Amino acid sequence: MRRALMLGGCTALLCVWGSVNAQVWEALPTVAPAPADNPTTVAKVELGKMLFHDPRFSETGTVSCASCHNVMEGGDDHRPTSVGVHGVLGGRNAPTVYNAAFLSSQFWDGRAATLEDQAKGPITNPVEMGMKDLPAAMARIRAIPGYAPYFTAAFGPGEVLNIDNAAKAIAAYERTLITPNSPYDRFVRGDKSALNAQQLRGMQLFAETGCGSCHQGAIFAGPALAAGTPFLQKFPVVATSPLVAQYDLARDLGRAASTGKPEEEHLWRVPTLRNLTYTAPYMHNGAVKSLAEAVRVMASTQLARDLTPGQATDLATFLESLAGEFPQQTMPRLPPTPGDLLM
Amino acid sequence: MRRALMLGGCTALLCVWGSVNAQVWEALPTVAPAPADNPTTVAKVELGKMLFHDPRFSETGTVSCASCHNVMEGGDDHRPTSVGVHGVLGGRNAPTVYNAAFLSSQFWDGRAATLEDQAKGPITNPVEMGMKDLPAAMARIRAIPGYAPYFTAAFGPGEVLNIDNAAKAIAAYERTLITPNSPYDRFVRGDKSALNAQQLRGMQLFAETGCGSCHQGAIFAGPALAAGTPFLQKFPVVATSPLVAQYDLARDLGRAASTGKPEEEHLWRVPTLRNLTYTAPYMHNGAVKSLAEAVRVMASTQLARDLTPGQATDLATFLESLAGEFPQQTMPRLPPTPGDLLM
């Protein structure tokens, strides 16, 4: 699916880009890769969709994966930081689940190697779903008799109703949450009318400014690395940018907050740029409201570039062209709750 | 759609019932009636489905109608009482939204005449969605540009983006949330194999015990009255039943809590008995866990009848036959949130 920009034809503009920098423009694949030990199947995806939308995985029975990763909107929760059980606030902006299947690591700090690993995290996080431990979460699911046949359909007979299979099913479902055929994708595939003049200016500026040194690849989140190899970058780099203080961008220590390693302070997994029009507000702390301002912040804090308002708008308009087609989904039907399973 | 029990044929059992009591067994219609000023249209239903599932109607952007009326499960939230914004607890068990279109009034105390009226209530309830007032809720929706075309499609051009139309759209969607073709419905329509022997015993017991004096009609929630005419009954009637204290059934004053009228103390709208297997726990306070126990409570507190465990189980098994077919639904696609619309 990799396709150099020049392949689509060689207008003056495209040739300039080709000679000025090595940016490779890739369209989004329509199918996400799956690990060898968890091939995507219809039965797993259906079970995963059920579990993803089931609030009974949480202490109060009110918070599901979909609460903060709302697939009916942009796969996030349109809040600066999320609200978990008992109304408590989380510390970071919910990343979108759409196209997360293409990342080589998960969470803002890349601490989970795979979607399967990631799926187990929020369940026991006290500011997210708040279950005491994973066995307690699975006890909830086992107490709902209607789940057993779905686990058997997905994983065969025997003792299959366990957390690893639940995580596999959720991950299999998430691998279907991809958004191909954005205007950008159509442009890269050869439809030169898919982007307007302002978006083309923004695309050129994206390459010239150096955004693509980190935001590369099909989802603009870095090179295609093996699962478990996070593509990390320091943020903010230019600590003297006034925007760092304005948006409080240096308070969170990033990866060091979970690893405790001083050398990993302010390291972050590079996030995707797809569907940004659906995932405001921006940054790990959700402090930046508009896409044009987010572009200005990144140029200033990472590349020491002060963009003009016009440049920031052009760039934002290009990024808007990365909003793709969301899959149409049927609602899952969740099995009923026995009355003695109180939440 | 009204069909007397005897129409299906006259076995010994059926004739006994017919002579002993006047219970009329009705199947659930497959289409819900709509008021003259809000005919159900495809465009209204689609908009209503979006609004019903949109958490941005709530103060924190985390609670939608679907949070407590989860249509992926039984149209309720499988909790004794609901959790609203900031994690606060509501006072009563969330009633199912499924088949609510057939009720002549809404809320546990019947204080809303129509689905349209009901839809406006939770938005500003501080323990539910918690918006300051209805104009603030509509300001949220107006700030999301993607909603305007859907309102226009549903209600025509002009100033149509208002709370009355939002409520009409939600009500139109709710009128599609009906669950026909339960085993009971198939039995009433003539399929004598649809109920087993235990369910038939329970059905007879239902009639003989007098449950149907209140739980009559297609959804077992009372006679077909005009919209705005709540079918109210006193609960508990037998204040000396030990089950009243055991389940704290008399603390909530019912309709008097909202009207302030002493003569309306402990008056409640008779709830539907359909899909009870999906809506545990039971009663207005969600204090009763199992369906058989709920049957025992009702017989004791309303009819001064002490059912044997076998009778309660037979009756519960009949009620299980009222679980119908839930409509398959596609997920709505919610328009994106502008970054400056902070929640």
Q: CATH H-level name of the largest domain in chain A... which superfamily?
A: Cytochrome c-like domain
- SSE order of chain A, one letter for each helix or strand: HHHHHHHHHEHHEHH
Structural class call of chain A reads mainly alpha
Strand order of the largest sheet of chain A: 1-2
Unreliable sequence segments of chain A: 1-20
The most extensive interface, with participating residues per chain, is: A-B, 47 and 47 residues
Task: Tell me the CATH architecture of the largest domain in chain A.
Answer: Orthogonal Bundle
Strand % of chain A is under 5%
How many structural domains in the coordinates of chain A?
A: 2
- Sheet of most strands of chain A: 2 strands, antiparallel
The mean pLDDT of chain A is 93
The 3D shape of chain A can be described as globular
CATH class of the largest domain in chain A: Mainly Alpha
* Number of E strands of chain A: 2
Instruction: Could you tell me the CATH topology label of the largest domain in chain A.
Output: Cytochrome Bc1 Complex, Chain D, domain 2
Gyration radius of chain A (Cα, Å) is: 21 Å
Give the termini distance of chain A in whole angstroms: 47 Å
What kind of oligomer do you see?
homodimer
